[in-house]
Every structure is written in C-alpha cells, then in structure tokens.
Amino acid sequence: MDKDFGGVIWTKHALDKLNERGISQSDAWATWRNPEQSKKARVPGAWVYYKTYGSQKIEVVAKKNPSTSSGQAGEWVILSVWSRPVYGKQGKIEPFWKFLMRKIFRG
C-alpha cells in the first residue's frame, strides 16, 4: 500500500483499514475520485464518498488540507475506508401496529 497513491495522502489508519477489511486501494481511490454519492462527514471539513461494487458499498472519508501560506492548493487526505454489504432493493418499512395485527390474526 502506498501512502501517496493517486496523488492524495493516505493516513496510516486508512491504510490499516484497507488491509484489515480487504479493500483494494484502487477501489477506495476510485470511490473518492468518482463517487455515486457523497455527504458531509461528522469530522469538520471532511466528506464521505460512496460507491457500490457488486454487493459491497465502499465508503471513503476524506478531507482537503487548507491551502499553504504560499497559495499552493491543499492536498486531499484519505482518513478512513470501510465497506458494507448491499442487499436487495429495500421496500417500505411496515408500521409496527400493522406488523402486530398481522402476527395476532395469522397466529
């Protein structure tokens, strides 16, 4: 694993998680570079990027370092990476009262 892969900085934590979770660095980089969706992360200034590969959704947390005093653009830093399984299309959730009535009357 390369701490400067793809022109971004990879934290030790992110590299450890890639290895631990069996995620390729190129898939994580592609998720960050061309996400299907993104949202603000809990960490101030960071974003979570999402992309689905088959039955796995990879999530990458990244943050851009501030610009330097010389005006040079800040570098992107990959903070963490994980994946989660993707299941079939999720339907509408049944209200609890309906579930209860169904269980009572169907025995």
Automatic annotation (TrEMBL):
<dbReference type="InterPro" id="IPR025354">
    <property type="entry name" value="DUF4258"/>
</dbReference>
<protein>
    <recommendedName>
        <fullName>DUF4258 domain-containing protein</fullName>
    </recommendedName>
</protein>
<dbReference type="Pfam" id="PF14076">
    <property type="entry name" value="DUF4258"/>
</dbReference>
